[in-house]
Amino acid sequence: QAALTQPASVSGSPGQSITISCTGTSSDVGAYNYVSWYQQPPGKAPKLLIHDVTYRPSGVSDRFSASKSGNTASLTISGLQAEDEADYYCSSYTTSDTFLFGTGTKVTVL
Amino acid sequence: EDLLLESGGGLVQPGGSLRLSCAASGFILSNYAIYWVRQAPGKGLEWVSGISNGGNRAYYADSVKGRFTISRDNSMDTVYLQLNSLRAEDTALYYCTRRIMPGPTFDSWGLGTLVTVSS
């Protein structure tokens, strides 16, 4: 059960947009529209940002958006802010009725 | 407010056992599948185990299958994770989380309980 592949780090200046990719296979990301994204600030528990590829729970800023194409999902943060500094993880349901998390991406605001 | 609170972590020797508990408040536990996700120090998230809302279906990652057992007592609003034959690589912060079907939508997380396996 290999983890989904994410870039180790992404950085941007305040106000810029950044995109984090999440690459899997046809047995997970590519199989269903069941990809979620989580934000984990340092020393804190993960927080749900996106579910079912594109849906934001209530209370999550609309600066966060996501999409999927084939076996790769993407999370975009627009209007980058200092408070966005955190680790970000994708997650996907798999054809084996299990879950995979991504390797995680550290976002740094320059 | 919907809350999950983990307990039961600690220091244990390799080969030892622990039982983790996840207590729910603010919502009806029996309406939800509950999952355990762990995070080794400085590492990423790893799904470990899950149990259906009624307790009749349990799921395990290959890394813990045969060693960990998940169960629940809905009358006590609590989910348990029995950890046996522990290894150094099981050292991690263990989170319990509430799943919103059908995808990997975990919308509420506890603060975690730390399991350290060391001699």
Task: Please provide a written account of the structure.
The complex is a heterodimer of chains A (110) and B (119). Chain A is globular, with a radius of gyration of 13 Å. Chain A is mostly beta strands and 110 residues long. In chain A, the strands form two sheets. In chain A, strands 1, 3, 4, 7, 8 and 9 form a six-stranded mixed beta sheet that branches. Chain A has a three-stranded antiparallel beta sheet with strand order 2-6-5, with no helix packed on it. The model of chain A has no long low-confidence stretch (mean pLDDT 96). Chain A has strands at residues 9-12, 18-23, 35-40, 47-50, 64-69, 72-77, 86-93, 99-101, 105-109. Chain A contains no helices and nine strands. The termini of chain A are far apart. In chain B, β7 and β8 (78-83) form a beta hairpin. In chain B, strands 2, 4, 5, 6, 9, 10 and 11 form a seven-stranded mixed beta sheet that branches. A four-stranded antiparallel beta sheet of chain B has the order 1-3-8-7, with no helix packed on it. Chain B has 119 residues and is mainly beta. Helices cover 0% and strands 54% of the residues of chain B. The interface between A and B is medium-sized, with 29 and 24 residues.
